[in-house]
Amino acid sequence: MPLDGYAVARGLAYGATLALVGLAVAPAVLARAGLASRLTLPIRHRGARLGLVAAAVLLVATLLRLWYQARSFLEPGEALTRDLIALVLGSGTWGTGWKLVAGIAVLLVFTWATPVLRQLGGVHRFLVLGLLVATPFAGHGASAEAAAWRGIALHAVHLLGTGAWLGTLLVLSAAAFPVILVEAGEGREAELARVVRTFSPVALVGAGVAAGSGAVLAWDLVGSPGQLLASPYGRWLTAKLTVVGIVAGIGFRNWRVLTPRLGGGAAVPLARSARVELGFGALILLATAVLVALEAPGL
């Protein structure tokens, strides 16, 4: 399996980006759900820790990507030099994308580590918007010279949709659900029901956007239906799409079966099901990391 250091770093950066998108969307979901005021502060504290971790992971993963990208130009035993790093950073869209993402990652770490900036949610959302635009410059979508901007736009929309879906689910599962289950007492079913019902349309739209943009990207990168089984890239893409289908199925079950039962003891099963959904989401990240290391037959 072509899961080298660069692919792992890219996967970590992708996962951190989804979490950061979720941190931009989740506050609006929670505000619209109208949670009890006593729950707001502990949820914010948990969200702040998650934001700092996600920003730090993005920064470290971005630095590792530069390291591995530069090392790929060297012969075994050859030393990495500052001139080579400068050459890589000046090499077309990849270098542009790396510099943009690295700068945004530094600003995100600073934002989440500074209480005043952290409380200004607009700063985080502005930086995340820049991250969505910058990230595709170093991906497969920017490799097709004839349609680079189309690929970059599709990749950015795909990240936004996936982040609004799985990224927000991660934030809610890590920051909101535990606080509600522990501190809301007898009202936990009602509190959780409001959050889940507010999040459901966001998740449905995000999943739809991710699926639609992902399908167009897949067509561009694979080139033909036959390559789905004939090429390593196509086979891994098929595996990823299969897991995406499983995750979507779990989310649909949560929406149609468990959510209507909230108020009758479904809070804990729903929170557990959300963790299972995120577990399969981690497999999507793994497949994405592998795909980064493979040559797309459609390029």
Would you identify the regions where 5 or more consecutive residues have pLDDT less than 50? none
Q: Total strand count, please?
A: 0
Tally of individual helices? 11
Give the DSSP E fraction (strand runs of 2 or more residues).
Answer: under 5%
Biggest sheet details: none
Number of domains: 1
Percent range of helical residues: over 70%
Order of helices and strands: HHHHHHHHHHH
Structural class by helix and strand composition: mainly alpha
Q: What is the terminal separation in angstroms?
A: 21 Å
Radius of gyration: 20 Å
What average pLDDT do the residues reach? 85
Could you outline the blueprint of secondary structure elements for this entry?
Blueprint: H1 5-33, H2 37-71, H3 82-89, H4 92-113, H5 115-119, H6 121-134, H7 148-183, H8 188-222, H9 227-230, H10 232-258, H11 267-292
Structure commentary:
With 299 residues, the chain is mainly α. The chain has one domain. 81% of the residues lie in helices and 0% in strands. The protein contains eleven helices and no strands. The protein has helices at residues 5-33, 37-71, 82-89, 92-113, 115-119, 121-134, 148-183, 188-222, 227-230, 232-258, 267-292. Helix 1 (5-33) crosses helix 8 and helix 8 (188-222) packs antiparallel against helix 10 (232-258).
Offer a few descriptive terms.
299 residues, mainly alpha, 81% helix, 0% strand
